[in-house]
Amino acid sequence: MVYIQESFPGREDGSYTILFGDEKIGSLISAIHATSIRMGSELERLITELANTIDDRNLDAFFNKTLQPGVYVIPKKTMRDKRLRFDQQPDAIVVNVTQNSCKIIEIKLGDAFDTKKAAGEVENLKRYADKLNRATTYRVSYAICMWYAKDKAAVIYGFKGTISPAEALTGAEFCQMVGIAYNAINDRIAQNQAANRQFLFQKVHELRGKYFWD
């Protein structure tokens, strides 16, 4: 699980200190920001834990097309293999043996992207898809997954219209695709929310006396 206290204290000389004019506040906000970034890695870890994955031991079977029928996830750590290390690695590759397909997927927790960043992400996926297509005989496609999006329209809107409906996935759709429980992952994420709130309130209470009084 991901806890703010594991990133605390944050930087006291960063932009948040400049924004608030206080090193302690800057450190706290910096720690919160670092923790929010780590949430993406935590989601990847949970998916890898629950899904049927391809790791270094059975990567040869992926390339040799000797995998047993089923749906597999190739996590980012497996993509460190030189045969999959093209440009910027995506978050996951979903392999459907029966359909002879690979879907390259970038997974996002948030939905606030500017047009330039969204276009850049899509271009990276296109380049990776092209190279994987040449390295294998699977039918290769790509998609952007917004974990908490309610429908494909929300994903397309969040990614500034740079993707089509076929290239948009919600978290629930991703989980259905790979055969894991969407709510089970969200419940695991929620387990640390109370502790993070408590830690935040504690630190804000400690700072209160410096700027406020009853």
CATH topology grouping of the largest domain? type ii restriction endonuclease, domain 2
Strand runs, count: 5
Shape: elongated
Mean pLDDT: 92
State the major sheet.
5 strands, mixed
Multimerization state: single chain
Kindly provide the radius of gyration, computed on alpha-carbon positions and rounded to a whole number of angstroms. Answer: 20 Å
Question: How does CATH name the architecture of the largest domain?
Answer: 3-Layer(aba) Sandwich
Tell me the structural class: alpha/beta
Cα separation of the termini:
36 Å
Helix content range of the residues, please? 40-55%
Order of neighbouring strands in the sheet with most strands: 1-2-3-4-5
Name of the CATH first level of the largest domain: Alpha Beta
Count of helical regions: 8
Determine the strand fraction and express it as a percent band.
Answer: 5-15%
Low-confidence stretches: none
